[in-house]
Amino acid sequence: MESEQIYGNLPVLETERLILRKVTTEDLEDMYAYGSNDKVSRYVTWNTHRSLSDTKEFLDFVLQGYEDRKLAVWGIEYKENGRLIGTIDFVSWNPKQQHAEIGYVLSQDYWGKGIMTEAAKEIIKFGFEKMELTRIQARCFLENIGSERVMEKVGMSFEGIIRKGMRLNDEHQDLKLYSILKEEYLD
Known about the structure:
By secondary structure, this protein is of the alpha+beta class. The chain has helices at residues 3-7, 28-35, 38-41, 52-68, 115-129, 145-153, 182-186; strands spanning 13-14, 18-21, 74-78, 83-94, 99-106, 135-141, 157-168, 171-181. It has one domain: Gcn5-related N-acetyltransferase (GNAT) (Aminopeptidase, 3-Layer(aba) Sandwich), CATH 3.40.630.
């Protein structure tokens, strides 16, 4: 499957509490609400949003990804209130090798409620059933216990530590690596 087939018309996915959909310009304030929180941005690769213009710049980047039919994010909409509360996506995808990596961010107001686990399970299902993936992985900083719990709850197995696996703010960071294989997902 080619990226244009998926990302040219990013499908809407639905779970019990969530709608995973394209992000729109109407999501600017919701995105700023969580993107401006230092606790939320602590474990991501982008800087804390200090103004609405920071969020608009990121939103424009996401919208351009849709236009270019490249890897792009699903916005996580909470059905109960219709708000955008985070994003989830395949941060990398190698169709030839049939593997991908997921990444995600969630508003602090929704931590500890199983929401990201619910979203990640849906993305993993999509990856194995629609993208013909064999392996899906995720990484997190060593101290990011919340993300590690999500990976475990979706059935991923800990593979090890990637020493100095990412450079962030001029400092190399160790990362925990988790993965799930298609045959494990089907079990």
